[in-house]
Amino acid sequence: MTQQTTLSLEKEFLDYVKKMQHLNEAIGLMYWDLRTGAPKKGVEQRSEIIGTLSADMFAMSTSDEMKSYIDRLSKPEQADRLSDVTKKTLEEVKKEFERNAKIPPAEFKEYVILQSKAESVWEEAKNSSDFALFQPYLEKLVQFNKKFIEYWGYEGNRYNTLLDMYEPGVTVDILDEVFAKLRERIVPLLQKITESQKPETSFLFEHFPKDKQKEFSLHVLKDMGYDFDSGRLDETVHPFAIGLNPGDVRVTTKYMENDFRTAVFGTIHEGGHALYEQNISTELVGTPLATGTSMGIHESQSLFWENFVGRHKGFWKNHYSTLQQLGGQQFDRVELDDFYRAINIVEPSFIRIEADEMTYPLHIMVRYEIEKGLFNDEIEVKDLPRIWNEKMNEYLGVTPKNDAVGVLQDVHWSGGSFGYFPSYALGYIYAAQLKNAMLKDLPDFDELVESGNLTPIKEWFTAHIHQFGKMKKPIEILNDVTGEGLNPDYLIEYFEEKYSSIYSLNR
Amino acid sequence: MTQQTTLSLEKEFLDYVKKMQHLNEAIGLMYWDLRTGAPKKGVEQRSEIIGTLSADMFAMSTSDEMKSYIDRLSKPEQADRLSDVTKKTLEEVKKEFERNAKIPPAEFKEYVILQSKAESVWEEAKNSSDFALFQPYLEKLVQFNKKFIEYWGYEGNRYNTLLDMYEPGVTVDILDEVFAKLRERIVPLLQKITESQKPETSFLFEHFPKDKQKEFSLHVLKDMGYDFDSGRLDETVHPFAIGLNPGDVRVTTKYMENDFRTAVFGTIHEGGHALYEQNISTELVGTPLATGTSMGIHESQSLFWENFVGRHKGFWKNHYSTLQQLGGQQFDRVELDDFYRAINIVEPSFIRIEADEMTYPLHIMVRYEIEKGLFNDEIEVKDLPRIWNEKMNEYLGVTPKNDAVGVLQDVHWSGGSFGYFPSYALGYIYAAQLKNAMLKDLPDFDELVESGNLTPIKEWFTAHIHQFGKMKKPIEILNDVTGEGLNPDYLIEYFEEKYSSIYSLNR
């Protein structure tokens, strides 16, 4: 047989990759279904099926066939002739192949079993607020990840290898500088705020019927430009958005009748994620590039919509009367200004996922410093409860009353996800940088928000971020859009300006 | 290497088969999702994924690996040691393997393409009521199936091979006799009915709010013993029930605000299918045996619940007041007796899926005779419109006003499904036979229905039918339960008794 032409080899490779994406989409739908109303007696069997399909995907990503595609297509004489999409796809699968191939299969299997065991032990430990129960599992998870880092290699700092998995290009050096700046200016600002008078918030907790909340959520999603022909809104316990393909991006939310903020801001947040996934170029469908480029950039989209739009005064100038009509009588005697102050209350608390936008990055800082310490042998797992509480007190001025609302609150570590947390903070920082860049193209941003004309905002994001999917790395996007690298100053300035006004602080 | 032990070979085989079932369940969920609210812009991509997974399943069912399992496990020294479940599973996959393996791959591929093309042409032909458009495709589909019958072989009559795919054990000889009896006694009965006074039915078509219909549907499903922890009720265009596994069996229905019967009787019908799937022994999960044993037995369950329970006077003695409360004022001046007569109206019509229980088997008879004629070279495709209308007139006394409501009304033939229709009629016949057998164990059947205690009925079906899944063939079930073979007399007697009373006929 003669040598295979580049074109037919490329097509074969893309078909192989497409098959993996098909499995991934089927898994995604099963995941969505499990979380939006699958009958409970079918859950175990469905989880087994997700396991079967995931194992198939993993096998395909590490197969000899995959290796052969990578080897053949990486040869210079072939590589030059590949389309840009194929090149990037090859890069992605190669990275994954190498990551997976470097771990001895027996160790990986042991690790997977540990993960699943650790997650259920963590749940038990959290319920009984008993860190000692979880400690041996967390120790093993850290140990495994340290070994993996040795297999994978690292540059500069061992923790960098973990960070890179979620936010390619971000390192400890960068984050140290960023978090130092944040701490330096947010901590004193927070101090001033906690000494100021709190806004009145009791009306936030009055009864707001679920169906009316749903009506408002649908209304806002539509305003944002979310395409209901490419998605749907459902109810769940832990809200998420999921992009199965750009034509099917689903949002989920949770309605709490005694706190409408959960649904309203949750829907806007997930809607921000969904806009990203709905507007990825269809050219990328069938490749691993048809998704957000990183956790941090994804989070920048959800946070931008939630905070820069959803907590914008102009947004409520436009929507407050609708909310008043849909709610009970709770808003009848509340002026817009008071409403605005209430939904922007800043208050140190124990729980990350309930934190306001200003204290949120501080919660992340606690986790970042702990993870960095763990992987550089400066912190031991057994000391985590003490260290956690100390850091919480130092940055937020509060000490968790027990480990359930302290070191045990998040699921991430129990699944072996170390290096993930910083991407949440990066999302805030990116969002503020993007806002600054957007203002150059859309100087009338405030008017657009106030008039409800959000289309130019959505389109700006599509043009600069969404469409590219994973074709551009996060750092590339940031440079192309803002002309600079990661810079927390914009976020800090946003906080200082906004909250000095809301809390009438002397700056 | 030493020879593999039966036990490990058996386990390996069962794992292989389980993998296929996993794919099948994932496909099932995607199918359900597509029909209950999947965003329309994602449909094309999702269909492609269903195609990928279906192709995988097909490949596994005809693979060399499958052949090797079949060959090795079929050897007498192995076969004797297999568990009953494995034996039946082997039988199933062997049957499928042989059916698929006998068709040359190129021909099969051509056929699959034809099927998909024919379905869209049929839709067009139906919309424009233009049989000529569909004719060449139908001719080719028949031609292909004739060739397949030659490959597969047949006994007695070529059409038997097709019948056997849907209702193992049922033949032309059996059906000829059955349909002759039905025709002989139903046609004159229908004649008498059409000459009698029609019940008043206008109130059936008054406005009945959708959410109230849903409430009633949920209420009835619960009464039937449908387990909502193993299922859910959703809305769709063409209602169906789907068993993903016994812990996840979903019902769908359609609400028409100007005819509540669609949702009420549709839900009971699909609920009957669902009870079957929910109560299959969990021991069979992961094998192809964890589903109904045949189309006909499945239909017997849905029809039993729809007609023998749902159109029973006692059922409405129990439920009519609830329906009255939920409906508008349309039932205020309608007595129970009049309501009962209205929902049991018998009226010849053009459309099979809208037919009442008595004319329904006549619609099937038309299709049966045509299919039999086609595969025995006694009827040509080009003559179908004329033959269809003649037979409709002969059995039902009506002549379709065009081919859209005549020969083009059903999707089945466009997908190459010949031999499927008779199973609907068999469902009616089985249901009446089962009712007769049930009365021996539950002589107080009427009182149970009237008092709303439907549990013994459900449990009787589970004990005699549901639990076995495909472990028993339809004919075996019928013999075990009724002590006789297929016998249409019970259905005919049921019709004669019920409708003589409703229409005050002289018998």
TrEMBL record, chains A, B:
Highest taxon listed in the record's lineage: Bacteria
Alphabetized GO MF terms: carboxypeptidase activity
EC number(s) recorded for this UniProt protein: 3.4.17.19
Catalytic activity reported: Release of a C-terminal amino acid with broad specificity, except for -Pro
Signal peptide: none
Keyword presence, Cell inner membrane: no
Enzyme class at the top of the EC tree: hydrolase
Presence of the UniProt keyword Ribonucleoprotein in the record: no
One protein family per Pfam: Peptidase_M32
Alphabetical keyword list: Carboxypeptidase, Hydrolase, Metal-binding, Metalloprotease, Protease
Protein's job: Broad specificity carboxypetidase that releases amino acids sequentially from the C-terminus, including neutral, aromatic, polar and basic residues.
Similarity annotation: Belongs to the peptidase M32 family.
Name of the protein this chain belongs to: Metal-dependent carboxypeptidase
Organism: Fictibacillus iocasae
